[in-house]
Every structure is written in structure tokens, then in C-alpha cells.
Amino acid sequence: MSTPRRTIEHLIEQSILPIAQANAAATHLEVFPTKRSWLAFFDKSSLIIGMVALVLSLVFFIAYNWLHMGKIGKFALVESALVITIALYIILSFKQKFQPVQQWLLFITSIITGVLLALFGQVYQTGADTWQLFFNWALFIIPWVLIARLPVLWLLWLGLVNASLILYLDVADFLFIDANYQSMLQVGALALINFVALNAWLLSIKNTAELQTDSAHSEFANITNSKTANSENFYSKIVHSKIRLPTASGLHWSVYIVGLLSSYFITHLAIINVFDNLIFGNSTFNNTDIFITLSTILIWLGWCGFMLWRFYKRHIDLLMLTYVCGSVIAVVMFWAGKLLLKDWEAGGMLILALLLIAMSSIAVVWLRRIAHVDNINSEAELTARTRDNDEKSNPNSNPNQILAQLQQLGLISPSSTIQTVDSMNEPDNHDSTPWFIHLFFGFSGILASIFLVGFLTLILYQADIFDRPNLQWIVGIVLSMIAFALFKHRKSRNNTFWNSLAFALSGAGQLYFAFSIFGSEMDTPLDVWLFLLLQIIMTMLIPNFIYRLLSSMAALGSVVYLLSFYQLPELSLGLLALVTIVVNLQGYALLNIVPAKLRFTAFSISKALNYSSAIMLLCVSVYFIAAEYGNSFISSEATFRYHYILAQGLLILASLYGGYLILKRYPVHLAAKSSVLIGGIIIIMGIISVYVSGLLATSLIIIIAFANSQRVLLGLGVLALVSYIFWYYYQLDTSLLVKSGSMLIIGLTVLMMRWILMRQTNHKAAIL
């Protein structure tokens, strides 16, 4: 989260900034995107969506007509598309225009190359193994990967290499390796490949960053040398220029994906022997097993040492260090589980739960301390850099300067002072702690809850009283009360270990509540209504962000189930979209209605609801909305029907309301040309994607995230959109011909709207 947005949140929590002035402060500090930023966003996103949709249309059309098209027709269609994309790239390259379009044309060319190879193998039945398809695909697109220098294309190539290696090692027979160690060889090779890829990525990013740094310093020097006597004009140039000087942390997003792959495979290598022995029940090691196990552990320790040197000593990066912490905890827990869970005793479950809580607490404290120091160093570096050119610092570089700006504007009292929130002393402070540390904390807490449930369940089972719903209800109440007391007690709340234990206890209490409700003789949907009411109460009572996030997600999931049960599944998308829009775009207005005494609690709940509503909308629109899965949500014998037009109409209305709220932030009238254009785009997108509801829903989340400068939500939206593209092919509710036509219309329409938008703005004016 950016410094201005974080400061605004702190000022609201400390009752310094009136909620009624929050939008004005966010607009002045450019937390809300500028008009120029909106134009660039629509330009890039519409280009990517339109071109990918055209490629999918081609793939779906070939798949639909597979049995009816001749060999010549199939090859002519795919090869024509390949020739057209290459020709367009060559034309644009010679004219030296539209560099992003050139890169994405090469990406599409790489995808079509894979389609052509798959087509060749299917038509002529070459008998080649599957790994050869991926290997040849990766081999043939190497020139385009090198020319395009597009991170997405690099990731595609790395994915193909991994897929070909996995498939090859599955069918290869190495005479010099025992069959029991084939899986270890496979994981070891994948760990090596991805470790090399990570270092190559880091080297490439380093060279690119050096070029960008030189360019940024050059532009910064030009502005400095042209400084006039008017210092305000000078700082206006600095703030509104596109200079982005690198800070002490933060890498390209593609590096983190490769780092995650490397972390997964090296961790898998360190625990694979434990995993295999747990599965096959072999509790004894021979000398070869001991040697290989020690070797894998030493390799893993070497990887940990490298990651600490690279991302802690040399260049601090919190997300990479979080990967290391997760890897260490996973390896320790697997080995401890092998030692403690031989006979599945209750004591082993308890020890594992406490061990996990202790290790995750230590990791979170360490990561927060590094984040705290890194933030101080980054701000000092930025302040020193600007002070070298003038005796003032960037107006938005630290909270005190932001506070001074808001005081000058009259948005807050001149005598107000901000209390800096230290993330090390506030475990539940959502704003000061990076999102991935929250995710790490939550995931560890959920696992610890499962171990605690296992411990208590084994005890109750041995006492032959586990199947009593009343007793389960009492256990859930006791665990929740203990967790609530730990969360409320100041000393335990400020201690990460006790905070982690409280979260684990509350999660275990929730599981026992679920056991007692759904294991009783209560009829459906009464049990779901009771569970929904319980989730609402627990969301309001338990003062923990991750707990409120999960509990509110469970509550919204219950609402979706009830709508399906009552034969109203079409309301799910529209309702979830409306909730997401209101809590994200009208959150400050709603908080202004809440009484002052409850405002802090309501503010904390709203931050959790911001993400939970968006996540549920993405889950429902991407994975659960297909009509063929509707029967799994209901127990009624009535015929299930899903009215796509009604559901899409409600989603369009909610999207129009979201567009209206965003336009209210800018001095734009509803009758203005830009408002009509935006409304028309929403309606057209909704109509053409009536059978592709996930496209409009995910696009809505992406726009909301961009409007609020929420990078985490933006990443979730993009990930959901990519997932939906892959998932859409396998949905059985519409034919491949309908899918092909939908993708063709969407692609052409989006590209046409982009052309109209660019022509109307002439690449200079803003969209709003």
C-alpha cells in the first residue's frame, strides 16, 4: 500500500481526518488514479483482452469443427492466423510504431505455434510422446521470446520447459537409477531448472533496472537544472513527472512467480523422502536412503543460504524472504510430523500445533522487523536523493509531509499530529503489514487450527463422546471465548505468539461450530441460516483482520448457497457485485453513518469485507456459475434452470452503478460525452459477454482495484481473469461454437472500442 493511502487510513483510525473529507484527501494525494492514468489503463488492458480473445476464438472454432474439417482446412486456418500475426509484427517493426502491440503479437504468434504443433500431431498421429509437443513448442518460440522481451512470454516459455521435463521424466527409464528414486530425480531436475531460471531472471531485471535508473536520474537532473525561482513549480514537475527511482526493495512481478516455483520445488525435494515414506508406510531407512536424504537436506540448506544472502544481506525483498520462511516451516513440520504422528496420538497433534504457531510467530516478527527497517531506509534514501537536488523532500514521501499538506488544505485541524503505527508492535495492523505476511500468518493459523481440532477430536473420540453435537457446540464456544479474551487483552494482542494462538483457537472453534451445526438433525436450509448468523456475529466480535476476512467469506458463501437452494442463483452475481462496489467505492460514506463509538470496529470490518466480497465474486463468477454445476448446490428435486440474461442484466446494472460512483470522484456530469461513452462500453461488454459472465465480473474487480489503487485486489482480479480463460474451455453449459463466436465478438468489440477511445482522446486528452 502506498504511503499516502496508508497515512489516510491511519488518520481516519486515529479520528484526525473526518471521514467526510477522506475522498477529498485521496483525490489531492492522487490515491485515486488521474485521468491520464485511466487512459493508459484502458489502452493497455483493452489491447491485451482483445488480442487474447481473438486467439481463443480461433482455438475454440478449430476444436468445434475438428471432425468436420479436412486436413487442408485445419492447417490453412491455423497457418493463415500465424502468417497474419507475423506480417503485422513485421509491418509495425519497420514503421517503429506501437511497441506494446508488437510484443503481444509475438505472444499470440507463440500461442498459435503451439496450436499448429498440436494440430500436426493430432492429424498425422505421429505417435510422439506428449513431452515432445511442449519441448518442440518451447524450442520453436525461442527467437520470439528473445525478441519480444515480454515477461508473460518468458513465463510461458519457462512453463513449457517445466511441463516437458515433468512429462519426459515420467516416461523415461534411467537404468542407473533405482525406480524408487525416479520421483526424486524429477523434483531435483525441476528444482535445478527453476533455480537457474530465477538467477537468470534476477540478472535480466538487474540490467533493465540499471538502464531505467540511469534514464530516471538523467530526467531528474534535467528537471533540476531547469529549476526556476518558483520552487512550487519545480516540485510540481517532480511529482507529476513519470520518474520512478528504484527503491531498496521491489522486483518485477514475474520474478516473484519464478521465485515461487523455485521455492516449491526445492522444498518438495527436501521433504519428498519423508512424503514417500509416509505414503508407503516404510518407517526405516537404509544407507542409501540416509545418504540421499542428507544430500537433499544439504541442497535445500544451500538454497536457503543463497536466498538469505541475495534477498536479505545484498538486497532486501520481503516476499522472497517470506518464501524462505514458508519453506523452512514446511520442511520442519514434515519431519516433525514423521516423528510425532507414527501412531496418530493426540499429544503429537498438540505439539505440532504449538510448533507451527511458534515458528510462524517468529517468522512474522522477523519479517515485520525487516519491513520496518526497510521502510525507514527507503524513506531516508528518497529524502536524501531529493535533498541533494533541493533542500526539500518529495511532498508525498512521508506521513508528516502528507499531514502538512492536508492541514494547508483545511481538511484536518492545524493542531493535529499523527501517531506512527509500528507494525512490529501491532500484529493485527492491516495497513502497516504487507499482504503476503497477512496471507502467511493466516495460512499458518488455519493449519494450526486443524492440528488443534485433530488434538481435541482424538481426545473426544477416545472418550467416546465426539459424536455429540451439544458437546461440539460447547467446545466451539469455549475455544472462541478463549480466543476472544486473548485478542482483547492488550499484552497478548501485542505479542505475536499469543496472537497466533488466539487465531488458531478461534479457527478451531469455528470448525467445531460447523461440526455441531451440520452434524445435527437440523433440516436444510435451517442449518445454513444458523451458520450464516453465527458467521455474522463472529465477524463483528473477533478483532482480527484475517479471521474477519475468512468469516465474512463464509457468510457470503452461505448467502450464495441459500440463493441456489431457493432457486434464485441468478441473484448471486448481481448481489455480490453490488456488495463489492458499495464497500470498496462507498466505504467512507457508509462509515460516516456509523456512530462514533462503533466507527473503529466498523472501519476494521469494512477493510476485511472489501477483500472477502471481491474474492467471493471472483470465485462464483469464475468457478461456480456454470449451470451444469447448479444441481450440486441444492437438494431439491425441482429442475434447475439458470437464466443467463437475467443474471447478466443484474451484473450490468451493478457495473453501471460502480461506474457512476467512480465518475462522481471527478468533475464529470452524467450527460457528458465521456460518461455516455463509459456507460455504453459497460452495456456493450455486458451484452456480448452474456455467456461469458466471468469476463465482466473479473473486469469489474480489476477496475475497482485500479480506482482505489489496491494492488493486491488488482492482482487477484488479473489472476481470476487468466484462470477463467482456461476454465471457460471446459465449461459444458455452452457449445464450442458459441464460445468461439462470443470470443470473436468480444475481441473485435474491445479492439474497436480501444480504437474509438484512442481516436477521441488523440492519445493526449484524458478519458474523463
Automatic annotation (TrEMBL):
UniProt xrefs under Pfam families: DUF2157 (PF09925), DUF4401 (PF14351)
Residue span, DUF4401 domain: 434-759
Top-level taxon: Bacteria
Protein name as it appears in the record: DUF4401 domain-containing protein
Transferase as UniProt keyword: no
InterPro entries the UniProt entry points to: DUF2157 (IPR018677), DUF4401 (IPR025513)
Residue ranges occupied by any DUF2157 domain in the UniProt entry: 11-154
Transmembrane segment boundaries: 45-66, 72-92, 104-124, 130-147, 183-203, 253-275, 290-309, 316-336, 348-367, 435-459, 471-487, 499-518, 530-550, 571-591, 611-630, 642-663, 675-705, 712-730, 736-757
Keyword terms of this UniProt record: Membrane, Transmembrane, Transmembrane helix
